[in-house]
Amino acid sequence: MEKITLTVNEVAALIGVGMTTIYTMVRQEEIPHKKVRGRILFHRGTIEKWLSGEESESKIG
């Protein structure tokens, strides 16, 4: 079964940028994410839609 959530490291590898870039994008709310108990997580489906331009909101929920 495929994981539903991705970590900062996994998203950075997926889109081909560094982890620092992902942290900056999170801080500036440029990428859809959730914080769970201090961890930054990304929903795989939402990130895939965001990458294809289908996701217009910068933050989930």
Gyration radius from CA atoms, angstroms: 11 Å
Average of per-residue pLDDT values: 90
What structural class results from the helix and strand content? alpha+beta
SSE order in H/E notation?
A: EHHEEH
* pLDDT < 50 stretches: none
Q: How far is it from the N-terminal to the C-terminal residue, by CA?
A: 25 Å
- As a percent range, the share of helical residues equals 40-55%
Shape: globular
**Main β-sheet, in a few words?**
3 strands, antiparallel
Number of strands: 3
Alpha plus pi helix count? 3
Could you explain how this protein is built, in words?
It contains 3 helices and 3 strands; from the N terminus they run βααββα. The protein has helices spanning 8-15, 19-27, 44-52; strands at 5-6, 34-36, 39-43. A 3-stranded antiparallel β-sheet has the order 1-3-2. Helix 1 crosses helix 2. The chain is globular and about 25 Å long.
Topology readout:
Blueprint: E1 5-6, H1 8-15, H2 19-27, E2 34-36, E3 39-43, H3 44-52
Antiparallel strand pairs: 1-3, 2-3
Provide the descriptors you would attach to this structure in a database record.
61 residues, single chain, three-stranded antiparallel sheet, alpha+beta, 43% helix
Concise summary:
Helix content is 43%, strand content 16%.
